[in-house]
Amino acid sequence: MNTSSHIVTHPKTFSMKKIPILFAMLLFSSSAISSIAQVADTFKDPRDGKVYKTVKIGNQTWMAENLAYKAGSGCWAYNNDQGNVATYGYLYNWETAKHVCLTGWHLPSDAEWTQLTTYLGGEDVAGGKLKEAGTAHWKSPNKGATNESGFTAIPVGYRTSSGTFEDVGNYGDWWSSSEGNTDTAWCRFLDYFYTSVTRADDGKNRGFSVRCLRD
After folding, report:
1. What confidence tens digit (pLDDT) does each residue in 148-168 have?
2. Is residue 5 in some structural domain?
3. pTM over 0.85
4. What does the alpha-carbon distance between residue 58 and residue 174 come to, in Å, rounded to a whole number?
5. Which residues of 19-28 are buried (b: 16+ CB within 10 A; e: fewer)?
6. Total structural domains within the chain
């Protein structure tokens, strides 16, 4: 065998100067795998002392969990069971949702939700990047869920206008601050069986989740 074409590098002769270069290459390769840069943090709501996770996605900083502040009215625990609040937060009607975020944060507008889904590649695929991965909370198959955005959306379902609670595990529903008409407002739905985000206008008296956006 002609060994002249084979180059063997002995461990003792490997240049230490190459290590930083290789390390930088590995970091670049790793960052290329995840297309979404994110910065995680926390903040405390001074109204009740609860600490929330946050995540920066593009130029926006979102709460990385549902709001769990108990408002005076228009606010419900799923199934009226306070034991659900620690995991799922509260459900709010639209009028309450508009005012429930603490100072320095706000209920995102329809346009701000669209900014988020556009940054994540569009409505057809953004749902998978927003949903918590696995089936601890989502019903199987929780299609396409990677949570690569760090948003960690979970399926709380919703409260109907008649006061019943439906679809925990199947859907997540979040208000925007933008009005549809006299009776409706724009919101976003995520589904266990699809990777998409659905934009819809729904009745203001329904109970949906809230994610506050930093001003």
Report:
1. 999 999 999 999 999 999 999
2. no
3. no
4. 20
5. eeeeeeeeee
6. 1
